[in-house]
Amino acid sequence: MRRALALAAAGFLTMVHALTPTAPAKAQAPASQAGRVQRVVSPGGVEAWLVRQTHLPVLALSFAFRGGTSQDAAGREGTGNLMAAMLDEGAGDLDSDAFHGRLQDRAIEVSFAASRDLFSGSLRTLSEHRGEAAELLRLALTRPRFDAAPLERMRQSILASIRRASTNPGSIASDTFWSAAFPGHPYGRRGAGTLDSVAAITRDDLIALHGRILARNNLKVAVVGDITAEELGPLLDAVFGELPAKGGLVAVPDAVIAATGERRVVPLDVPQATISFGMPGLKREDPDFIPAFVLNHILGGGGFSSRLYQEVREKRGLAYSVSSGLAALDSAGLVTGGTSTRNDRAAESLAVITAELQRIGTEGPTSLELEQAKRYLIGSWALRFETSTQIASNLLRIQLDGLEPDYLDRRNGLIDAVTLDDARRVARRLFGAPRMLVVVVGKPEGL
Amino acid sequence: MRRALALAAAGFLTMVHALTPTAPAKAQAPASQAGRVQRVVSPGGVEAWLVRQTHLPVLALSFAFRGGTSQDAAGREGTGNLMAAMLDEGAGDLDSDAFHGRLQDRAIEVSFAASRDLFSGSLRTLSEHRGEAAELLRLALTRPRFDAAPLERMRQSILASIRRASTNPGSIASDTFWSAAFPGHPYGRRGAGTLDSVAAITRDDLIALHGRILARNNLKVAVVGDITAEELGPLLDAVFGELPAKGGLVAVPDAVIAATGERRVVPLDVPQATISFGMPGLKREDPDFIPAFVLNHILGGGGFSSRLYQEVREKRGLAYSVSSGLAALDSAGLVTGGTSTRNDRAAESLAVITAELQRIGTEGPTSLELEQAKRYLIGSWALRFETSTQIASNLLRIQLDGLEPDYLDRRNGLIDAVTLDDARRVARRLFGAPRMLVVVVGKPEGL
Q1: What's residue A281's pLDDT?
Q2: Distance from CA of B101 to the nearest CA of A (A)
Q3: What mean pLDDT, rounded, does chain B reach?
């Protein structure tokens, strides 16, 4: 039973999910998944991608507005995160308790989240309650109250989590890494904010950010469930139609990871050293993204079978887990990774990781590794299309990546088409002369 | 955003799930769900219920052996729990790392768990890897190694969780409640064991318990996925065929909750008082179970709309959450419930809860409450049939409850058929003269 590892793996999947090609397994998929996607444009002009499924009386709706925590004003970091916590804490005529009561009585689930580039959310409801669900989502998105009592409750909850994170080696390593990698850039800030910034956020800050981000020109929507295109149009207008046509996003400049070649040690009195590392990677639209995605699976994305895992854990027992991943953000692309190891083995662990990056950069993967990785990535994707919410989330991601529904049919072919030459070329590009930013938290010996 | 409440609600659902009628929503369900269930008996005599689904290349298998933590030997409490943690920590020729590597390389998920009455598990795999998945599950069930190194690792992990629980008010309240309710009975012991008992468990204890519980005469199996009955038979024999035909379960005597009418206060220096309460309830086979299930939804199972929630939280602000549930165990039936409240309001909270039990016992629910509860329970059930694993789990529960596949078609009708007279009669039976065992952990004033 490996809870810690399972959690780490889930975290990795989440990260890759946010930037990964999308489609069911080649062998088993129907001839065309894309053919099931309808592009619905409401009378009011709101577009959504719809997959109609009638085998369950459930409707799932996922949406995202471009502009996440990167839109927080300076000194008010954490505003987007606090707004996500507040949208279901009272809206329209309903206070926090009344709003939650209406949701719970009909088993309606709504959620909101702010990441670096997106403010996103989802809705899940029984089909029979979709009118009520749409009304509650409309209220949350267009008439949030930001009442004082729940605002203070959420603020205190977030402050408590920031305090907890301030003593957590993994959080310290992550915060230190991102602030060193992107100094002066929104990506360098912590999305949840700081104790000072969260304490300073006012109701007016929330209202201002809400007005800048939640607008129809920033919006993508995906819907899965027992609803026709004709029925969906009016529902889209009901939920999103009152939002302003245009928001006021601040441009986030493109950035490249800084401080590469540097190593920063944050002293902390703990038995394990936590290592975070990163280097320049690729954005999603880069033509090399798919080969890089396959290559990363071989290097450190593929769990037990990955090179980092085999070398660091299996052969040397240096760590319980080690992994790497692609972080393809809107304004920057990175390869990141990390591990935790005994303080007296931290230097050796980092040396092994560095050597593996250099080795794959020089030699590329083997043809056997490439075939196994492609087979795994093509086959396992189907596991992420089981629920309505998963399908909606994948459809949303494809839209955000600027792709068309046909990508559902093309994705596995693109992975299958990665040649050994492709993989070697991208390996040289990414790891041919790796210069990493490394952050170590703990009492590492010899670092 | 209500994480704490959502978690509480999820916990409640889990509990009810373990004892609840099962079927999709009436309005939307196909004419016969039961008609989709095939009873497959393998050449070797292993029976499983199968729902064939071909829209995803995924196979889910759920199984359970009667005999859970109640089978732990005296002084060795926690053996079943430790066994659940150990089955995937090495089996056959594969050590712990090799076993997990094989699972992860093919994205195969296995899990095991021990509850009071059951030792259960599940498997989820891509269809293309079902042969490998079956082989790994066979090894885990029939050839577990119980190697020394992972055994000590799991033991230490469990000991750490027991230590954490020993300072957690909710865990203390639960342990105190069950030990007072069932003194000298297996239900009175903590399933995870104690610091002493877990330290004392030997490899031979694991082997002995394994031999007593994991036998074919204790076994129920449910399978959902892209597999035919003809293909499933040999797979069942491959996985379960090597298990002994008969186990050696110790009889667990029927029991009735003791110490009713008593109140036990466990002093703990915390600002909140945690209250657990319970009284005699019903076993699953009781003819009044379905009316009691609906009644409990009205009393304290239905979240925001429930009487306890309205009276304790909404009207008086005494607690953030309060709920009740039916615990229908194999050898005892209970109504249980609980809340957390400020120490200086603990007495008032308990008085309000007691008054509500008496009120519903005397008056029963209103016809409006009954209709709303029935509508919610009938409609929301469909939300639990979305994934293959959920469907398999529900099919397994129906078997364990001694019911037939036609229950899938009958369940919502049974709920719909509960009359106001039924609800009042069962309310009188359960709450007409409520005598509760109450446990309070904290520094409650006036208790």
Answers
A1: 98
A2: 5
A3: 91
